[in-house]
Write a structure and sequence with these properties.
about 350 residues, alpha/beta, Rossmann fold, 2 domains, two-stranded antiparallel sheet, about 20% strand, globular, disordered N terminus
Amino acid sequence: GQKGGEFFTPISLVKLIVEVIEPDYGTILDPGCGAGGMFIQAALRHQRQLKQDPNSVISVYGQEKVEGTVKLCQMNLAVHGLSGLKNIRQSNTYYEDIHDCVGTFDFLMSNPPFNVDRVDREKITGDPRYPFGIPSVDNANYLWIQLFYSALNDQGRCGFVMANSASDARSSELTIRQELIKTGAVDVMIAVGSNFFYTVTLPCTLWFLDREKARTERKEKILFLDARHIYQQVNRALREFTEKQIEFIAGVVKMYRGETVEVKGNELLAESFPAGVYQDVAGLCKIATLTEVESQGWSLNPGRYVGVAEKEEEDFDFAERLQELNQELEGLNSEARVLEERIAENVRQILG
């Protein structure tokens, strides 16, 4: 595969993924691990929130094609006191399954390169890590999605960053997406706005899969959450989620799963979910059935489902405001005529 959209994963997105999938035990895989940021945030969750030594409860496994980046990841783990350096290995994930991934891992987190082309189809044909088939288009997004799904065990959860285009991709990618949705594993889709990445402005979507969901009452449901309007502006070119915003978004997901969420300490949660119980909120979140998803052409784009938030009624007299605007327009037109006459006079003097 040729180099695609490879971008450093913003820390606030990594933190959100960690808070949603809650990788609190067992094995964690990142098959495109880069410098290991996903592993570090999982470890920090154990240290700061759970007051645990992460090495006693989780084991990390990584795969990365660039040797220098493998060493960087190992160094990053060592600096943060994480064991498992030998589990970070160099290989091309598309072609090599160095961790015997199929059905193995409790958790997976990743930010794969977007829209990679020129993956050798002959090398991956028949690979069990692509259970829904090889897409006919020259784009690896749905190879990554299948790699993530197939790596999970029966109770496994994963969260990953993906190009927006994958949510509505057509042709053979639509067929793969349809088969994936029918498994019941697609759990949560979160739309993220633009300007979260340091070098590009593109928006993205966070996908969350849960293999155990197919055996719960959520089997026929998917939570769609539109977080494009949620952010803190860091500077002119960069946005991020604050800690409270991460807590809010993750709290919505946890309520959807039936978990108890304390809303009093978070104004965003208290405003939208005062009883601490999930409810659809126009413009923010919607639980859709698989029947509804099918009626939308198997789209996983949150914008198709959450609708638009109702605007508060403005307290003003429309007729009065229209008259004010008309008077303002007449004034501007009058000024324009004066300026036009002045310009014409100046031109006559210059030419005269």
